[in-house]
Design brief:
InterPro entries: AB_hydrolase_fold, Esterase-like, Mycobacterial_A85_antigen. By secondary structure, the protein is an alpha/beta fold. It contains eight helices and ten strands. A hairpin with a 4-residue loop joins strand 1 and strand 2.
Length: 261
């Protein structure tokens, strides 16, 4: 079942939709379940809700595989506010190439993740039969950047993390410095990937396929020394959309939630 709720992201006083998937047997059992938090929640479950009418169809896979996991999809903020919330640090240079505007983007990611860890997760744990110590996070593109950030600042909360086609280049230097300074012993599983065809039509000043690949390789080189169980995949035909991430979702879930270490 997928339930829709309205919440207020209190640091910004912004109303937001969350979508909560519970397994088919949830109402017929007294079991407790791990929770996976996913960014861009409007793209997680249903094509008709998705930004580009393509979703991960995560609920369909979970039902078919009968996995005992609760998923909380948090819708993204509209427009450029999405970049603000998913960017942990301000980037005063990228606005021109991404939006054609001389604007500073990012800088709200820390407050956004703090809200999830300190307010949203306790609310979900209080109202659903969760396993509070078994909490995961997953995101793609900017959602991948903020997921790795979350692993660094809350490694004992978000213990299993997946980052697909991540836009690390948005805050490359700051993220590398954070990883270098972080104790990630609490992270049990970490999955990363990047496609070789992330950028279909590169612009003069925007990110390139080479930038995506190099950016992810640099982050992985730091994380592999910090996290014992880590997997990094370069997807040869990998492109930057929900259909590509939908294809990889079963493999990522299997890795994150496998009991075999």
């Amino acid at each position: 079942m997928i339930e829709t709720k309205q919440i207020t992201i209190t640091p910004f006083e912004r109303e937001r939709t969350i979508r909560i998937y519970t397994p088919a047997d949830y109402d017929m059992s007294d079991k407790r379940y791990p929770v996976l938090y996913m960014h861009d929640g409007q793209n997680v479950f249903a094509d008709e809700d998705a930004s580009y009418k393509m979703s991960w169809r995560a609920g369909e896979y979970m039902d078919a595989s009968k996995r005992d996991i609760i998923i909380v999809g948090i819708d993204s903020a509209p427009g450029e506010m999405r970049l603000d919330e998913y960017g942990p640090w301000e980037n005063p240079y990228i606005g021109e190439s991404l939006l054609g505007q001389d604007v500073t983007l990012g800088g709200q990611g820390s407050a956004y993740i703090e809200y999830i860890a300190q307010e949203l997760k306790p609310m979900i744990d209080a109202n659903y039969r969760t396993k509070p110590d078994e909490t995961a996070m997953m995101g793609s593109s900017m959602g991948g950047l903020i997921s790795i950030y979350a692993a660094c600042v809350y490694p004992d909360v978000f213990k299993r993390v997946a980052s697909l086609s991540s836009a690390f280049w948005f805050n490359q230097t700051e993220l590398e410095q954070l990883i270098d300074a972080s104790d990630l012993n609490g992270v049990e599983r970490l999955y990363m990937d990047v496609g070789r065809k992330e950028v279909e039509q590169p612009s003069a000043d925007g990110p390139t396929n080479e930038m995506y690949l190099e950016s992810s390789e640099r982050v992985y080189a730091l994380l592999r020394d910090k996290v014992e169980h880590i997997r990094f995949e370069v997807i040869e035909e990998g492109v930057h959309n929900e259909l590509a991430w939908r294809d990889r979702f079963p493999m990522v879930i299997s890795y994150l939630f496998s009991e075999e270490l």
